[in-house]
Design brief:
Strand content: over 45%
Structural class: mainly beta
Distance between the termini: 38 Å
Number of helices: 8
Shape: globular
Length: 912
């Protein structure tokens, strides 16, 4: 029998509550840090359990009168035994394991670091992975700190099978095993958090800094007690607990950075303080906080390609010069009461705030306003009578996420009951989205040449018509304000009861109620009365505006631009129907119930269970008729889904483990896709119209997972995991062209594909190479590779195609890292790479399918331990200055080319 630890704040495999007399205790390292995932074995009976995140365990020891000998098996440290006298049964016993590092024969080595060690961090993760019933990947907090990863998305890219989507160089969304970002639910301490973005269920992980967490866990094969809405994988972010460490604890980090495309000094700092108190130290209190600020100026050029009688040609080019300030603030708090090993009560809260304050100068060439000349090719063309525009935009975006949880866990005889009530809320607001557009009276003949697809040549920068500021006149101002609120109330209960020494029965339920409201106002004024009193030249500063080697003239003065915006915003004309059709409200109620049985004997763990979820959804959105009449359209849906589960864990030895699972999962459509609305948005000269589809079906997936893991002593793992997902009603956004209100437009509609599949394999190797002689024994390796393939098939054909690749799916993803740790020195060189993946499908023309180019990035970190608790570190991120590239169909048809530079960061860490 193996008992799952109680009181853990991440979804754990359900196990038997210990029947009869028990022994309880905690396992720490020499610094008082709890060691999770340690195997605790009663040598006389072979019964075993594992420690939770706070190093706690309770195990059956039926002989209540005699001594009990326990074996403590923890990867990265020598095995140890401890004899528990009968007199110690009534109180928790504390174990302190010896320092990390041992040879294959169990003898110690001198590869020990004073303070936080990369080997210790790796051991925390691998021990938790080894003890889990299902397939998971764990990244511990200190391991996150050994990479230059400022947010959760970038930390997760180090895990096997996880790729990230970036915005201006920073990770935002994740793709697990080649699936879209919304196929992975995100939780904090087991409570799902809603998205801040009104267009998707995917959570913006750049809102959450990485230095407030204790653990990141990616569950790749679900168990019945987990929410079913994670087809690709569920990510749980575990915050710190005051019981993670014995007694008082203080940690902190502070540093500053330099960015190649930045302006000024960037900085980041975080800290956490905790303590346990009371007569038996049964109370615990923890507070943590984080703050960071960056000031970047990435370079960006976008080219829109469209079908013309001569073939695909560029119809619009936008040169975007950004000046972006981003700040992140986050905090966590926890108060916990543990009067005994049978009772736990907790109150926890988290808060995160992300602000993106951005000025953007833009030069635009509207090729489509002119006439394409004969002799053009698919890479070069000349247009007469083109149009040139100059625009400034000030956009401020604020994302906020906060959660509050109250919970308890109580052991009742041989059973355990746990309950949680939680409230989470996310919001996204745009206090400013202000634009001022000037248009040149010149209608020059211009040409482009994509011989160099990354940085094409444009004749404009030879003839320089865009620098003739006297030819520009006011065209329009536009204003938008957005407020989106997404809140969820969750109540959950779970009971575990041992039927006998080998079988545990578990059941429970969870109710989730989510409310979403999206409100947007749009204004535009082209009247002469809205024109600024000064000319474009009067708005310009002395600072040059440049993208790559393209001279865009001078930047518009930000202070003058804001003064104009503030003076004219109130008088700008409200845009209708867009100010109405952008809005929607929705409510979703999900009730989930599960039952499962867990059999454990002689290294075999077999879990069989069923989860049932009922979903009720309703939404409303304003609809404006051609005559201007406003009415409310409603959408409603309800369904019941069944999620059977069979999971096997076979431990041939404690370190050779086979896992296999048959499961079922769901992904519900994004909220605006279900809302009955029609929304038009204009960017430059491109009009996009998005349609909702209240009848859209959720995507269901039948999953097969299997893998073999070999845990290497003293510290390492080699694993192979394969997966296959049979998809029903896979959901696409399909683009087509048409005419909207007299203008050419791109129509976007969500549609269901009848069937699809996603499959692949992950290979992972992590090892401390302590068997190498002398100084070479300090080397180690982290490497993983993931291969994925998949597609979905429609009943109808689009431009002759009925089968499509899956958006977000890279065929190849890999990470390779070499580290060196010896004495006070720690060094790591890491490279991460993913291959190209589909972003959007064009239903009219396969050559206009939009792809992200695969991207590789080199990062280097190093640190030195000055003294106990004081660590100096330095990091280099994106040292290859790799660009972000999107293209249509073929690589030379570049849509977006952006560079954001390398970053150098250094500072000090404190751990007391």
């Amino acid at each position: 029998m193996r008992r799952a630890p109680s009181g853990d704040r991440r979804p754990l495999p359900a196990g038997a509550a210990a029947p009869g007399p028990t022994v309880s205790g905690r396992v720490y390292d020499a610094t008082g840090v709890a060691l999770p995932g340690a195997r605790i074995v009663v040598e006389a009976t072979g019964l075993e359990t594992t420690t939770n995140l706070q190093g706690e365990f309770t195990i059956a020891a039926p002989d209540a009168t005699g001594d009990v000998v326990l074996l403590i098996d923890y990867l990265g440290r020598p095995r140890a035994t401890r004899t528990i006298a009968a007199a110690e049964r009534g109180r928790d016993v504390s174990f302190t394991l010896p320092a990390a590092g041992e040879n294959a024969d169990g003898s110690g080595t001198d590869i020990v670091v004073t303070g936080a060690s990369l080997l210790d961090n790796t051991a925390r993760a691998l021990n938790q992975q080894r003890s889990a019933d299902n397939t998971i990947t764990v990244i511990s907090a200190d391991a996150i700190g050994r990479f230059p990863d400022p947010n959760i998305a970038e930390a997760l890219q180090r895990a096997p099978g996880v790729g990230i989507e970036r915005d201006q160089g920073e990770g935002r969304y994740i793709n697990v095993r080649g699936a879209p970002s919304e196929f992975s639910a995100i939780s904090v301490d087991g409570i799902q958090i809603p998205s801040v973005d009104p267009t998707t269920r995917a959570v913006d992980l750049d809102t959450l800094p990485s230095d407030i967490v204790a653990n990141l866990e990616v569950t790749k094969s679900l168990l019945p007690y987990q929410d079913a809405d994670s087809i690709a994988g569920a990510v749980n972010i575990t915050t710190r607990s005051p019981f993670d460490r014995k007694g008082f604890a203080l940690t902190g980090m502070a540093g500053a950075s330099y960015n190649q495309f930045g302006k000024g000094s960037d900085y980041r700092g975080s800290g956490a303080i905790s303590d346990t108190f009371g007569a038996d130290r049964q109370f615990g209190l923890l507070l943590s906080g984080s703050y960071s600020r960056t000031h970047r100026r990435p370079d960006n050029v976008e080219n829109t390609w469209s079908a013309t009688p001569a073939g695909l040609r560029v119809t619009e080019t936008l040169f975007k010069d950004y000046d972006t300030k981003r700040t992140r603030m986050a905090g966590t708090g926890a108060f916990e009461w543990r009067p005994s090993d049978a009772t736990r009560v907790w109150v926890r809260g988290t808060y995160a705030r992300f602000e993106d304050d951005e000025f953007r100068d833009r030069i635009g060439i509207l090729w489509s306003e002119g006439t394409l000349q004969s002799g053009s090719t698919d890479r070069a063309a000349t247009y007469t009578n083109t149009r040139i525009e100059k625009q400034v935009r000030h956009r401020k975006q604020i994302n906020e996420i906060w959660t509050a949880t109250v919970g308890f866990e109580q052991r009742l005889g041989e059973g355990t009951i746990r309950g949680d009530v939680a409230y989470s809320e996310s919001s996204q607001t745009y206090p400013r989205r202000d634009e001022l557009l000037f248009r040149s009276s010149l209608r020059p003949t211009l040409s482009y040449n994509f011989a160099n697809a990354n940085l094409p040549t444009y004749s404009l920068f030879t003839t320089n018509e865009h620098l003739q500021t006297g030819t520009y006149a006011f065209r329009e101002n536009t204003y938008r304000s957005n407020t989106t609120k997404n809140d969820e109330l969750t109540a959950a209960i779970r009971m575990d009861l041992p039927a006998n020494e080998t079988i545990t029965l578990s059941s429970g339920g969870k109710y989730r109620e989510r409310h979403i409201s999206a409100d947007e106002e749009r204004f535009r004024d082209r009247r002469a009365s809205a024109a600024p009193s000064q000319t474009l030249a009067g708005f310009l500063s002395d600072e040059e505006s440049r993208n790559f080697d393209y001279n865009l003239g001078n930047r518009i003065d930000t202070g003058l631009a804001d003064a104009y915006f503030d003076a004219t915003k109130a008088a700008s004309e409200r845009r209708l129907p867009q100010s109405l059709t952008a809005d929607y409200t929705a409510e979703e109620q999900i009730l989930g119930m599960f039952g499962m049985a867990k059999y454990m004997k002689d290294g075999t763990t077999l879990i069989a269970g069923l989860r049932v979820e009922t979903t009720n959804f309703k939404s409303q959105a304003p609809v404006v008729s051609r005559t201007g009449v406003v009415s409310m359209a409603s959408g409603k849906s309800g369904y019941v889904d069944f999620f059977p589960n069979l999971t096997l864990r076979q431990a041939f030895t404690p370190n050779v483990i086979l896992r296999a699972a048959l499961s079922r999962a769901i992904n519900r459509p994004n909220f605006p896709q279900l809302a009955p609305r029609v929304l038009e948005t204009t960017e430059g000269n491109t009009v996009r119209v998005e349609f909702g589809a209240p009848g859209l079906d959720p995507t269901l997936s039948n999953n097969v997972d299997a893998g073999l893991e070999y845990y290497i002593r003293p510290l390492g793992v080699i694993s192979v995991n394969g997966f296959y997902k049979d998809l029903t009603d896979y959901r696409y956004t399909v683009n087509s062209t048409g005419v909207y209100q007299g203008l050419p437009a791109i129509f976007s509609r969500p549609v269901n594909a009848r069937q699809g599949k996603l499959y692949g394999v992950e290979v992972n190797w992590q090892q401390q190479l302590s068997f190498l002689p002398g100084l070479l024994g300090g080397f180690g390796v982290f490497a993983n590779y993931t291969y994925t393939r998949g597609d979905a098939q429609f009943d109808a054909a689009y431009a002759g195609r009925s089968r499509f690749a899956l958006p977000g799916q890279s065929k190849h993803m890999w990470n390779a890292s070499v580290f060196y740790e010896r004495g006070p020195v720690n060094l790591r060189v890491a490279y991460t790479k993913r291959s190209d993946y589909l972003d959007e499908i064009n239903a009219d023309n396969p050559a206009l399918d939009l792809y992200w180019e695969g991207r590789g990035q080199l990062d280097v970190t190093g640190s030195v331990q000055l003294m106990k608790g004081i660590n100096l570190f330095a990091e280099g991120k994106n040292l290859t200055n790799t660009a972000g590239v999107r293209y249509f169909g073929e690589r030379y048809r570049v849509y977006e080319y952006e560079k954001f530079g390398y970053t150098l960061f250094g500072g000090v860490r404190v751990k007391l």
